[in-house]
């Protein structure tokens, strides 16, 4: 991109990219141009430090060496494919009343800046189509210094995929990897992950409280799908030409609920993302009892995963945990001023259960000695 390619375009001819992969899907669905522009600017103010950029432009002027990248649409407008944050800043500098968020902060910025520095035209590079801009954007925002979050990367790759000639899926992933300077397996994982994500979005995030595009931790989600047993459980086949063709939406709902749905204590069934290895283990077809315990009986993940071990290991680990818990109770007993009858009943049941286990184990030991 050379300086002789740069043209200055009036801001009234510049519009926000309707397919910006960084914006929430619900926002991008807006049909009304004015409503869309207003909500984009609100989102940018909340998430993109636009106020700081406004102050910088107002003090130093617009840096001409950072042109926005645009493509003309059918309405004779220029869609800003790269530079929507800068467009927001300049539009608000020219008309602060467009802001419905952070109005006081913006008014303070306007008072402090040099009005002569506010541009009415922005340096731009015009591309013949949106597709022509995508490869440059990908390198910059996927592997470059201004990397997007993983969901934006995945959505961008999905858009870029549609610009490629038809070919085997993995070969297309290799082509995309070369374009963005990444690896084919990573590209494939993001593409499969975003396809599964679109199923979740289509189902309104399974009506999970407070779960939406902005709160959805896509990094945890696609990392989960990378685990073989989890992928098999939800019906994803990474080796297929169409990996999500046979996705099981009920199983996908299970997975999303386990990862994201919170109980009254603000905890999920999965817990921390490092527990994905445990979830992957109980989803192994060899351990149906483990899955049933976790899914149907609602047992904690740590308890369900024990059912994937050899019975002797499960028995020993359970004894160890019981001993540890009882030792903690013993150590705190001196601080308990008024024990209850219910606690005494619990201890009686523990005593009786321990006695029964002791007799059964002792009997097995004696039988073994006789053999």
Could you describe the 3D structure shown?
There is one protein chain. The chain is an alpha/beta fold and 371 residues long. It folds into three domains: 3-129, Conserved hypothetical protein from pyrococcus furiosus pfu- 392566-001, ParB domain (Alpha-Beta Complex); 133-261, no CATH class; 339-371. It has helices at 25-28, 33-47, 50-60, 84-94, 103-112, 131-143, 150-161, 169-180, 184-202, 218-225, 228-234, 249-260, 276-282, 288-295, 301-306, 311-332, 341-370; strands spanning 6-10, 14-16, 68-72, 78-82, 121-127. The chain has a five-stranded mixed beta sheet. Strand 3 and strand 4 (78-82) form a beta hairpin. Helix 3 runs parallel beside helix 5, helix 7 (150-161) crosses helix 9 (184-202) and helix 9 (184-202) packs across helix 10 (218-225). The longest helix is centred in the last third of the chain and has 30 residues, at 341-370. The radius of gyration is 29 Å and the shape is elongated. It starts with 5 loop residues before the first strand and ends with a helix. The mean pLDDT is 88.
- Describe the biggest sheet? 5 strands, mixed
Radius of gyration, in Å, reads 29 Å
The total of helices stands at 17
β-strand number: 5
Query: What is the approximate shape?
Result: elongated
Unreliable stretches (pLDDT < 50, length at least 5) are: none
- The succession of helices and strands, N to C, reads EEHHHEEHHEHHHHHHHHHHHH
**Strand line-up of the largest beta sheet:** 1-5-3-4-2
Distance between the termini: 85 Å
């Amino acid at each position: 991109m050379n300086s002789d390619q740069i043209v200055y375009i009036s801001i009234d001819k510049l519009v926000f990219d309707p397919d910006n992969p960084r914006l929430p899907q619900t926002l991008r669905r807006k049909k009304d141009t004015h409503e869309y522009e207003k909500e984009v600017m609100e989102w940018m103010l909340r998430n993109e430090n636009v106020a700081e950029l406004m102050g910088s432009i107002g003090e130093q002027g617009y840096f001409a060496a950072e042109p926005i990248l645009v493509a003309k649409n059918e309405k004779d407008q220029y869609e800003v494919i790269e530079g929507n944050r800068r467009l927001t800043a300049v539009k608000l500098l020219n008309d602060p009343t467009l802001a419905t968020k952070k109005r006081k902060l913006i008014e303070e910025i306007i008072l402090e800046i040099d009005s002569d520095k506010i541009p009415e035209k922005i340096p731009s590079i015009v591309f013949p189509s949106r597709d022509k801009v995508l490869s440059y954007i990908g390198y910059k925002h996927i592997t470059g210094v201004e990397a997007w979050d993983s969901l934006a990367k995945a959505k961008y790759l999905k858009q870029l995929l549609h610009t490629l000639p038809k070919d085997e899926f993995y070969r297309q992933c290799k082509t995309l990897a070369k374009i963005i300077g990444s690896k084919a397996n990573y590209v494939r994982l993001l593409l499969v992950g975003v396809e599964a994500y679109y199923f979740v979005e289509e189902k309104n995030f399974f009506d999970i409280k407070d779960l939406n595009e902005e709160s959805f931790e896509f990094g945890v989600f696609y990392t989960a799908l990378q685990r073989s047993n989890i992928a098999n459980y939800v019906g994803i086949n990474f080796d297929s030409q169409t990996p999500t063709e046979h996705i099981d939406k009920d199983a996908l709902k299970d997975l999303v609920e386990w990862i994201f749905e919170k109980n009254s204590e603000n905890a999920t069934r999965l817990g921390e993302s490092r527990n994905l290895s445990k979830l992957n283990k109980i989803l192994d077809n060899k351990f149906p009892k483990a899955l049933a315990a976790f899914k149907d009986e609602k047992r904690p993940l740590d308890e369900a995963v024990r059912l994937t071990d050899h019975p002797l290991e499960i028995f020993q680990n359970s004894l160890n945990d019981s001993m540890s818990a009882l030792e903690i109770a013993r150590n705190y007993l001196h601080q308990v001023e008024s024990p209850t009858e219910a606690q005494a009943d619990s201890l009686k049941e523990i005593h009786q259960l321990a006695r029964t286990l002791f007799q059964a184990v002792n009997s097995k030991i004696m039988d073994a000695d006789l053999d």
